[in-house]
# Entry
Amino acid sequence: MERQVFDAIRNRRSIREFTGQPVARDLLQQIITAGIWAPSGLNNQPWRFVIIRDHEINAKLASLTHYAHIVQAAPALIAVYLDQKKMYDPVKDHQAAGACIQNMLLAAHELGLGAVWLGQILKNRDRVNDVLQLSDQFDLMALLALGYPKHRNQQSRRQPLTDFILHEFGGDTP
Ligand SMILES: Cc1cc2nc3c(=O)[nH]c(=O)nc-3n(C[C@H](O)[C@H](O)[C@H](O)COP(=O)(O)O)c2cc1C
# Structure
């Protein structure tokens, strides 16, 4: 049995080093399409995106994060926002943004691209909005750095499954 979704979930890694190869607009649109097919409460689709393939903008955004080297060198960036005018419940809308971003990371992986979810830049979210010419109607959720991976030897670890399961009720069947 093919397990493409599970394999993508398991094998996706955060990619922080890219070749200089540009990323085609069509691929970025496919990645955003994966994002917008995430579930959202009441199907309100509160996400919005800014696509960046402009070295000058990269440089301005790089100055706003500890991860400047990643942002500076990324052939493409996608800023993921919540549109506050579309939101109806803060917790649920933020959960939807997370689902959207994870879909995007998995789509990038399937397309042979690498990506990393950058959150540290959120401490300068207001200045990011200035650079991207957006009002405070739009609340930055993440900056995704994307490109073709320089290598694929990234390692990541998870604690054992049993660490996470608080209780299991029932269980008369396997
Ligand atoms: C909310 C969030 C914020 C993150 N912020 C950063 C970041 O600012 N810089 C960075 O290099 N990685 C960032 N990451 C990536 C995590 O470090 C990475 O997902 C984690 O170490 C697990 O590695 P993996 O994605 O390869 O499985 C962030 C991930 C999430 C979900």
